[in-house]
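Progress note, project year one: complex with zinc ion.
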Amino acid sequence: MSEAEALEDDDVPTYPSEFHGWRGWVVEKGLLKSVNDKQIWTPGEPFEADCSLGKTHKRIPWPGCHCGLYSVKSLTKLRSNSYHNVGAFGKVAIWGEILESSDGYKSQFAYPLIIWVAHLDWRKVDALRGRYGVPVMLGNPYTMSEPKEDE
Ligand SMILES: [Zn+2]
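Model obtained:
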């Protein structure tokens, strides 16, 4: 996909889930990447977890294993884990197999719903905007307050 191509609304995955979580991403060449394993989140495609240990489970995430796409339940929690200042942060829709803990989720699938970029990294906004078919905005990860669900 070229830099100039933007996703049409039809290209953005629909999410059969009401669950939302918060995540941080590294941003490289206008693409979101997972912080720990640097896997690319391909625009227009649900991001699907595999087992980082290479195990074959009946389902992913598997209870007791580390696999699954991690997200937390609040921006406050994201800050306390220091995932708010890695490049971009935002809310994701999660679906498929979901394991819930008190702080967050491990899910089988995820896709960004809204992406914020810190003001210092404002140049990354143009690279990301249009890519994933979702809003990309500037936000202060340190002081921003938690947006309401319907915003
Ligand atoms: Zn696993």
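Residues 16-138 form one domain.
The pocket of zinc ion is lined by residues 51, 53, 55, 57, 62, 65, 67 (CB under 6 Å).
No further modelling is planned for this target in the current period.
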